[in-house]
Amino acid sequence: MLVDYARASLAAKRGGGAVNVTLSHVDAGGVHREDIGDYDVLALHQALERLSEHDRRAGRAVEMAYFGGMSHEEIATVLDVSVPTVDRDLRFARAWLNRQLA
């Protein structure tokens, strides 16, 4: 929903270009619409799509942790992997996304 809103808003403004964004503002748990701008949403969405193409499980883990607010144990259950695997996937994903969005 946020991505569709951002696309519509940017199209209406005739804007373009990506803005650097990090995941630090969502580390506490969930994303709030007022905390991120339209460009940030699109940049993050595009980076998550690229991550999922590179490593689908890590991409799903990020979505569940940051946008779904799921614990590492819950993610491990859904993905049918161990908690240490989820930890590794999230560390990898965070580093990968930070590099993509820098």
From TrEMBL:
Cite the Pfam families for this sequence. Answer: Sigma70_ECF (PF07638)
Q: Report domain RNA polymerase sigma-70 ECF-like HTH positions.
A: 2-101
Q: Entry's SUPFAM superfamilies?
A: Sigma3 and sigma4 domains of RNA polymerase sigma factors
Q: What is this protein called?
A: RNA polymerase sigma-70 ECF-like HTH domain-containing protein
- The species this protein was found in: Pseudoxanthomonas taiwanensis
